[in-house]
Amino acid sequence: MSQPRRTVRLLSIVLAPLVMMMALLTGYTPSGVLASSHREAPLIARDPYADNTDVYAFISPDRPDSVTLIANYIPLEWPESGPNFFEFDDNVRYEIHVDNVGDARSHITFQFDFDTRTRNPNTFLYNTGPITSLDDEDWNKPQTFTLTQRTARGNGQPSSAVLGRNLRTPPVYVGTKSTPNYEALATAAIHTIGSGANAIKVFAGQRDDPFFADLGAIFDLLSLRGQAPPIGYPSGQDQSNLPQDGLAGYNTHTIAIQVPISRLRASGDDEPVLGVWATASRRSTRVLNGVGGILDGRGAESHTGNFVQVSRLGMPLVNEVVIPLALKDAFNNLRPEQDAGIYTADTDVGNLLQRSVLDPELQRLLKALYNVPNPGANRLDLQAIFLTGLKTTKPFTINTAGGPVELPAGTNVNQPSDVQPAEMLRLNTAAPFRPGVEGSVCAPTPNYQLGLLGGDACGFPNGRRLQDDVVDIELLAVAGAAYSVLTSETFAFNPALIGALRDNVNQNDRQFLSTFPYVSTPWSGTDHRHANVFETNLPQVFTQQPRQSGLREE
To answer: Can you tell me the distance from the alpha carbon of 459 to that of 475, in angstroms, rounded to the nearest whole number?
Structure first.
């Protein structure tokens, strides 16, 4: 007797996002709706393969006439996860979106569809011998992908062009016996599409997770290790007060694409600011076929229906620490073009979303836990950072190759000229914001710890580089570091917080590459470690917080 079929509805494709948000606020959760970004939304554990963990957008340092876009998926991959190693899901559509106009719509979409083949179903092994090339017969589960570019046209109907088929991914880093000379395999999986100045480079495969943060301490009532109590831990407790990178030793799956700026800018439009976000989508219906499906060739499961967006990510940490629990899963279903309508609506949902941005819970926690002063409940600076891009209201000094330069009030850092408010990462691609070119306003030595707040005009939140310490930068931004320069009002931000309000995990656990795809080599199943170098090699050091910073017991 065959097993009955079981149908799981991921999400009704006709459900209006606003109705879904209202349902979430009243406690109803649609069955099977999924979420994204380092397990930041309540239901993400059900589908890590659709979990978009990080998005990066930056001027390519070794090719400044191009932009590199990176979207990572599948959080916290254990390198030793055999025999069923992590890989892109053939049933997920992964996409990177670009708004080159400022209207919060995707005008260029790079779509990635994967296909996995099993060479020998009669073995449990991922590989039956050393994998020495991407054609190696000992690689039992090779994976390829199709890259499609969809471009919005004036008539509202997008054009679609397949840029590449059967593009190969590298295997996962099993170990030095199974995957010797791993970087040679990864390099072979870098594909160049086209030629000359118009060429695109693309890579999809396993890499070291480039995000770095002391997640354990941060979610323990916003503790910051390496600092003196009350914000750090006192000596003599069970846990160390030495900072630990919670992502150290873990891998992720990276989609990276390097595109000439001329191919990303709208034709006939001088707008230099690009809005970037990534998504993952699944078919609306999943059917578990049981043994009968396996025996009759249909497979263990079938996926039908239209694709439904289940994951969305632009600016880092937005859904993690800005969006409240009631809205997290719904946020992943929204398109940026829908943000403004919901944000400004006089509804329970709209009011909750506005409060989350203009009076974020994080600033209230900093005040309640550590008495850190803040500008109050009308955070138009955060609205600019997350929803519109930045335009200064007062003079602001940046560091350039020619020395400090004071930018006048009204300087447009990365706000589109006719912007529609929406959450996304924004990058200014104008020539002055390109490192290494004549007349560049980028800091000659990049300030990865403070980014734009530290006078580096080409640092986060103007785009996001792999090295940018977004945790420290966003903590300082919430504490009001950019308030005076982005609003008409003035706030006496205490500069002593710059050295104190930080998690002290300042860089990735592996060195980034100097060339595309830039993300570090993944950890192998035989040499990884989750312990942090700070914990194992350095003596314990307490930082005495400056007086009047709010972080010191007076």
So the answer is: 15
